[in-house]
Amino acid sequence: MSDKVKCIGVLTSGGDAPGMNAAIRAVVREGLAKGVRMVGIRRGYAGLLQEEISEMDAHSVSDIISRGGTILQTARCKEFRDVEYQKKGAEICRKHGIDAIVVIGGDGSYQGARALSRQGINTVGLPGTIDLDIASTEYTIGFDTAVNTAMEAIDKIRDTSTSHERCSIVEVMGRGAGYIALWCGIANGAEDVLLPEKYDFDEQKLVNHIIESKRIGKQHHLIINAEGIGHSVSMAKRIEAATGIETRATILGHMQRGGSPTAKDRVYASTMGAMAVDLLCKGVTDRVIGQLGGRFVDTDIEEALEMQKEIDEFQVRICRTFGGFPDETE
Ligand code: ADP
Ligand code: F6P
After folding, report:
1. Fold of the domain built from segment(s) 146-257
2. Ligand 2: centre distance to CA 25 (Å)
3. Ligand 1 center–CA 47 separation, angstroms
4. Which of 14, 55, 87, 201 is the most buried (most CB within 10 A)?
């Protein structure tokens, strides 16, 4: 029984990610095992402000570990950037006897957690996003599932692309971050990968590469394009006009955010969820859980939010080398 906290709330915020349910289950069951009252807050910070709060018992998280999405649902709540609403959120926590909250989400959600903490509610964050774009961790809940979902879809597109000797542009998620694109670029053996972190908007280079691929006998030309660059449909039209090679665009979209989590996402989310509760039960606050150098760690939230994440240059290089499109800037 923790003497530091009597009640812990859990919420999911921002874009959902496969494995969030495994994290919720871990948080609830670890808390209950420690004699803490557990409550779920629905629809992220929006639900907190609406007092969408309910008791969670062991049964309330039964049969969810294999399910995608989040049973608590999620939301984006603009108001919560405003200190008045952050104060209101903390008051609602006190009204419901909530001493501490586990926030599962991305960097934006971490900022909400820090704000709540400044208003006197202890918080620990768990990295929940398919984008892998949180600097304080090398792993985020949902990335493994999402990248495998995208990879399997792209394998199928590659088959038909080869049969028709076409060029295919496949757009994967990642508005500001190219990790899904980069991983698919390597895993699917793409000829080109367009990353928001690296793209120089020189479409002529791409056109030249496609023509060269055809000349050396390649039966397809697969381009993975990150959402952050976008415009895949118009790009396909321009490429077809410039190369004379039939070109199709496919936008994978939100299918990448759903589906049953991989073993890795289930196990890591469970581990991290339990770690978050253990910290809160010791009276610790303002931490975020992550994985660095193969070890699960917790980092000060302030430091975590200051950190910058760089795309892996070595992986970018090999992706381009294997696709026959070496980086000319090197
Ligand atoms: P993610 O958590 O995946 O990065 P968002 O950036 O959309 O997703 O953030 C999720 C939610 O976190 C926002 O809708 C908002 O409620 C909250 N949030 C984001 N930025 C802040 C901020 N600066 N201060 C307080 N809350 C924030
Ligand atoms: O959660 C991250 C993410 O899937 C990004 O890759 C994508 O840009 C964004 O969310 C899409 O958000 P929405 O669900 O609002 O379309």
Report:
1. Rossmann fold (3.40.50)
2. 24
3. 14
4. 14
